[in-house]
Amino acid sequence: MENVIELKHVYKSFGDFQLKDISMTVKKGFITGFIGGNGVGKSTTIKLMMNLLQPDSGSISIFGLDHKKHEKEIKRRIGFVFDENMFYSHLTFAEMKKMIRPCYMNWDDSLFNYYVEKFELPLNKKIKSFSKGMMMKASLSIALSHHAELIIMDEPTSGLDPIFRREFLDILHNIMQDGKKTIFFSTHITTDLDRIADYITFIHNGEHIFTKKSYQIQEEYAIVKGGMELLDRDTEQEFISIRKSNAGFEALTANKARVEDVFGDLVLIEKPTIEELMFYTKKGAK
C-alpha cells in the first residue's frame, strides 16, 4: 500500500517542547485522523510536512519526494483547509480565485464553478462577510479545484455548528469515493473522526503513540469497569490509566484479550471512543 506521507525519525525542539523521534505514515486513498491534546505537536507536525518549519533531524517525504527539494511540485498536488482564514478578507471570492488560479498547473475552472454552485458560495461578496461555515466551504472548493491528490486539514470543523459539521463530513466522504484522494485531518472534535476516519494517528507530548486502522482500536483497546476489590498492584499493571471512585474503577487497556483472560466476567468491557483514548492516555502520562 502506497504511503503519501512518510516521516522518519523526525526531531524538532522549541524551548521546553520537543517532537521526539516521530516516525509515521499516511496511506494513499484513505482518511487519516490526526489526534492529540493541545500543545502536543499536531500543528508543528503539519508545519514540518509543509516545509514551514525545518526539522532538527530526520526526513520527510510526500508522494515519495523530499519535501524540501521538491516543495513547489508537492504543493501543487496538495489542497489545504485550515481553521484560520487564509484569504485576503477585503477581496471578493471571485477576486481571490483569480489570484490563486495561476499557482496551480491543474486548475480547473469548471470544477471550481461546480463546487461554488454545490456549496452555494457568493462569488461577488467580500470574504470578510463570510460565515465560518462559508469560509470552510470556500477553502475546500479551492483545495479541490486543482485536482489535489492530498488534502491536509488543520482543525477544519472547529467552531462550526453540529449540523454544518455533519454536512462537511458528508462532503469529505463523497469526494473520497474515487479512491484517488487522501485526507489528513487534524481535529480536537473526535466524534468527527469516529464517523469518517479510516486510520487514526495519535501523538502525545511530542511522541507518536500509534497509527492504526479505526477498527483495530476497537479490537485492541477497551474501557474496563469493575469493583475496587479487583484492583491490586499486579492487576493495575494491565491498564494504561485508571479512574477510581466509591462506585468502582474505570480504566483503559491496550490489550483487550489480556483483560478478558485476567478478569473474565467480573468486569464490564466496552468499546472506547477516541476521546476516551486521549483522556486516559493523558491521565496515564501524568
Tell me the layout of helices and strands.
Elements: E1 3-14, E2 17-27, E3 31-35, H1 42-49, E4 57-62, E5 65-66, H2 71-76, E6 78-82, H3 93-100, H4 109-118, H5 132-144, E7 150-154, H6 162-175, E8 182-186, H7 190-196, E9 199-204, E10 207-213, H8 214-220, E11 222-226, E12 241-245, E13 248-253, H9 256-263, E14 268-270, H10 274-285
Parallel strand pairs: 3-8, 3-9, 6-7, 7-8
Antiparallel strand pairs: 1-2, 1-4, 4-5, 9-10, 11-13, 11-14, 12-13
Helix pairs in contact: 4-5
Protein name: ABC transporter, ATP-binding protein, YtrB like
Domain ABC transporter: 5-230
InterPro entries: AAA+_ATPase, ABC_transporter-like_ATP-bd, ABC_transporter-like_CS, ABC_Transporter_VariousFunc, P-loop_NTPase
Structural account:
This protein has ten helices and 14 strands. With 286 residues, the protein is of the alpha/beta class. It has two domains: 3-215, P-loop containing nucleotide triphosphate hydrolases (Rossmann fold); 221-285, Alpha-Beta Plaits, CATH 3.30.70. The model has no long low-confidence stretch (mean pLDDT 89).
